[in-house]
Amino acid sequence: MSIELGKFNxxxxxxxxxxxxxxxxxxxxxxxxxxxxxxxxxxxxxxxTVFLYLDIEERLIATTLTPxxxxxxxACLEVNWVNEYGAFLNWGLMKDxxxxxxxxxMKMQVGREYVVYAYVDDDSYRIVASAKVDRYLSKETPSYxxxxxxxxxxxxxxxxxxxxxxxxxxSGLLYDGQIFREIYTGDRMKAYVxxxxxxGKIDLMLQKTGVEHVGDFSGTLLQYIKDNGGATPLHDxxxxxxxxxxFGVSKKTFKxxxxxxxxxxxxxxxxxxxxxxx
Length: 278
Hints:
The chain contains three helices and 18 strands. By secondary structure, the protein is mainly beta.
């Protein structure tokens, strides 16, 4: 059997000792799971899903904790401390994640957060991270279609909007005109593909477009009115920020949904807002 450093592995418990359990690591030998991480009622012969990394003495060790990033993933992590070799990031484990100076785009500062990529260094067999994110993003042309839902990690602010990492693989751009609430580097959220350009670059948006989205939100708005005593003070003249804070949609989408429900005679529009039709 082979194990994967920096990832979750399912291994068999083969020995119990005073300070924990040993797991079968195949060619890597037995791997210690310290007592603090051993599940209650665990016994020899059980199979456990554990995360494998190196302790402060560079020994392979297991934990049942879930780190903030695994090898092969991107994440936004805070710098705990810095020394003459590089920066050390909090990734939720006892030993911090190392970022050598050569893998920093600018000198990292304690207390700041940075988007990084985690990988295993071929020379040292250590789990390290790099802030030079571009080199780890796919250069292939993606197969997304307009309207596809994706998971994104906000990466960095640009003059046009925000760069985002899509599905832990591709780079995309969320234009300022598509943003209707405060977002920050490190935020994770759902988004939609607006288009894939001929050069493979991906434009993103935070809302669906067209009839499908308006129809979806029309139902949401109608249910909201029903759940709130048959009325809402929000209307097509309300502030866009108030609409977004309440529903998470743009004012344009809200107004289209209001028009849709009004045409269907499901609501009436008054000077005090919207009400269910009799």
